[in-house]
Write a structure and sequence with these properties.
This protein is of the alpha/beta class. Helices cover about 30% and strands about 25% of the residues. Strands 3, 4, 5, 6, 7, 14 and 15 form a seven-stranded mixed β-sheet that branches. The longest helix has 14 residues. Bound molecules: NADP nicotinamide-adenine-dinucleotide phosphate. NADP nicotinamide-adenine-dinucleotide phosphate binds next to helix 1, helix 3 and helix 4.
């Protein structure tokens, strides 16, 4: 099969199209003939050598795919050859064939093509488990989403709005702010305004109930300053820095919760549980087109270096997708 491999850790041009043996699904696994694979910021970290796949997982990049099931391993009940699915994987997505643990696959949302559905799993699993399971965001509450125009951000804005929350989103340009507004957020151009001031003014000094952060570093104190009583801060990325110095007092006085998580190293059972909740609560919203994956551009496997450059440049609004 054709696949995109990381020849050695380094720049985007180290992504090379190679020929590899087609993998064979083991017990509890399915083999998907990939029609499209989503590109995510963690793929860039992996290419740079900062985000290795968990033990036993393909070292090819790619955390999500959509396509048709080519074969089914032993002990798989739900899926059959010929079913169309999209799936979360811990690696191996940039390939014509990809092994998927059966519980991590979902049917294609009704009406969506594989080229659209491939852009869903990584950000929807991440946002669902953080914003709603850990962060307990609920109807009538408010959330501040950093990187509102990112793959994660465009997903978080739509899900927050669909479940009845008010969304504030930061972004670094007017074009990105416009995209966030069209998805239903109150956008804040963080290069022109102080997001803490904007949030405090917009909420009459109350603050937001939840902050979803991908930056870290000096955003930590500012995120704490944005939170309302009983607020929750969800740390899911560190694009700024992993280190920060904070005044702990407001965590006590406002009774805040600071948490975070990574998705890739969770067990198949945990990911399967998230998949079932998504299928029940979010798939109907995708089928009715109330929410949708936001795709900036679709490129071929041979253009994988360009796909990474595009994401790294910060020019993308939403997701980049690769097709074999
Ligand atoms: N914990 C998890 O389970 C999990 C899972 C998936 C992704 N993530 C993390 O979530 C974050 C977003 O991922 P994504 O795939 O949605 O990313 P993406 O689409 O590439 O978007 C990243 C955006 O972040 C903003 N940004 C702000 N400061 C930045 C900096 N120093 N370097 C680069 N970008 C910066 C940029 O928008 P502006 O121009 O508006 O600043 C950029 O467009 C990443 O940190 C990723 O590692 C975490």
């Amino acid at each position: 099969m054709k696949a995109v491999a990381i020849s050695e850790f380094g720049p985007p041009e180290n992504l090379r199209v190679v020929e590899l043996p087609t993998p064979v699904p083991g017990p509890g696994e399915i083999l998907v003939r990939v029609e499209a694979a989503g590109v995510n910021r963690p793929d860039i970290l992996q290419r740079l050598g900062h985000y290795p796949p968990p033990p036993g997982v393909s070292d090819l990049p790619g955390l999500e795919v959509a396509g048709t099931i080519a074969s089914v391993g032993p002990d798989v009940e739900r899926w059959h050859e010929g079913d169309t699915v999209c799936a979360l994987v811990a690696g191996g997505g940039y390939a014509e064939y990809c092994i998927v643990p059966a519980p991590q696959a979902l049917p294609l949302p009704r009406g969506l093509r594989p080229g659209e559905a491939a852009a869903i799993p990584e950000t929807y699993f991440t946002v669902w488990t953080n914003l709603f399971q850990r962060g307990r965001l609920s109807e009538g509450e408010s959330v501040l989403i950093h990187g509102g125009s990112s793959g994660i951000g465009t997903t978080a804005i739509q899900l927050a709005r669909a479940f009845g929350a008010t969304a504030y989103a930061t972004a670094g340009s007017d074009a990105k702010c416009g995209a966030c507004e069209r998805l239903g957020a109150h956008a804040i151009n963080y290069k022109r305004s102080d997001f803490v001031e904007v949030v405090q003014e917009a909420t009459n000094g109350k603050g937001v109930d939840v902050v979803l952060d991908i930056i870290g570093g000096d955003y930590l104190q500012r995120n704490i300053d944005c939170l309302a009583m009983h607020g929750r801060l969800l740390q899911i990325g560190l694009l700024g820095s992993a280190r920060a110095e904070v005044n702990l007092r407001p965590i006590m006085t406002k009774r805040l919760t600071i948490t975070g998580s990574t998705l890739r190293t969770r067990t198949v059972e945990e990911k399967g549980a998230i998949a079932r909740e998504l299928e029940a609560r979010v798939w109907p919203l995708l089928a009715s087109r109330q929410i949708r994956p936001i795709i900036h551009q679709t490129l071929s496997f041979s253009d994988a270096p360009e796909a990474h450059r595009l994401l790294e440049s910060g020019a993308a609004i939403g997701k980049v997708v690769l097709v074999p």
